[in-house]
Design a protein that fits this description.
- This protein is mostly helical and 426 residues long.
- 76% of the residues lie in helices and 1% in strands.
- The chain is built from 16 helices and 2 strands.
- It has helices at residues 22-52, 56-81, 86-109, 115-129, 132-143, 149-178, 181-200, 216-228, 231-262, 267-291, 297-311, 313-317, 321-349, 355-366, 370-384, 386-405; strands at residues 3-4, 10-11.
- It has a two-stranded antiparallel sheet.
- The longest helix has 32 residues, at 231-262.
Length: 426
Amino acid sequence: MRILDTAGRGRRVRLLTPLAHRNFRILWIGMSVSLLGDGVLLVALAWQVYTLSGTPSAMSVVGVALATPQIALVLVGGVVSDRLDRRKVMLSSDLVRGACLAVLAILALTGTLRLWHVICVVAVYGAASGFFPPAFDATVPTLVPKSELVGANALDQFVRPAAVQIGGTALGGGLVAGVGPGWAFGFDALTFVISAVCLACLPPLPPDDAQERDSLWKDLRKGLSYVRANTWLWGTFVSATFAYLLFLGPTEVLLPYMVKHVLHGSATELGLVLTSGGVSAILAAVIVGQSGLPRRFITFMYWAWTFATLGVAGYGLATSSWQLAVTCAVVNGLETAGIIAWATAKQRLVPAELLGRVSSVDWFVSLALLPLSYALAAPVAAAVGVRRTFIGAGVIGAVVTLAFLYLPGVRAVERDRNSGREWDTS
């Protein structure tokens, strides 16, 4: 595949090219280290909660406590990132989250950690998390040329599975099995400190629009108006809302339970299952990053996400950890390909001065029902069984995702030959 620049010249997308830019390289290094800690946390938090409680309902409560503050504040985070220095926004988010992990580490290592402690701390962690993604999404296009955005987003999707699902989960499984969750929480806290140091090395990242600002509410309304006027944006947001409602809660809550209590596996096996998804996601990022995106990028994105969601049903059919690993590989590889297309489309087609707000609306709408997804996962599994919950989530989620592709106007942006941003496969 080739991507056409505005002059119509075909050129290959190179995955590592964006790293030639110093500021993007520093941001990428800090993000990579932080994501490694996220992978450790993924295993440590689930194992700690199931050790304290042993029931999916406890993990559901923790998931709700984590997601609700993030969703509640992400719109504010988008407005703030379009008004203030984005470096300071990301730096503040990292420092607060690092402090939260340090608290969990101290409580766990002293043997005083209780489930209510976990719930309270992850709620603060989630609130701080609401400010980072919009600022990060709006920062990347300011650090690399538009011609390198596919490569930059592919690098992002390369390092996320490499750090979170391969290095992080493997390390997390080893730390939890070897020295316990407390040290794993401490390691994650350290990664946020390193990320904060990298951000401190960046120059100021002021908002793109230097004009006099309206109120926070008026700024937010401008972002919402832009989203409402573009079906490809709001249609995809709403599609993600229902897809995440159906499958994300069951996956986050029940996959660790499936390994630990249904298949009687270990923390190391959970780490390996998640690692397989990371390997697949890396391969997808390399392929898309090197070859570019097809002209029908919205269609490509929706079909990738449809098959990824359908793959969730495979968790319910698995009878061993290796089958869970294969399923995780299918789900994560396809999801990554769609995410690269989506991130690149937003960064190329949304005005820079609105990107933080549009990104925050994306996060808010897409994750709006995530607390409900977490809350329903345990009772639904109790009523119909863990396996049937996975199968139903995958099949219904895939149908819902694909249906939105045929919403009038969703694919119109693919046919816009006057934008100078059209992708082609020639």
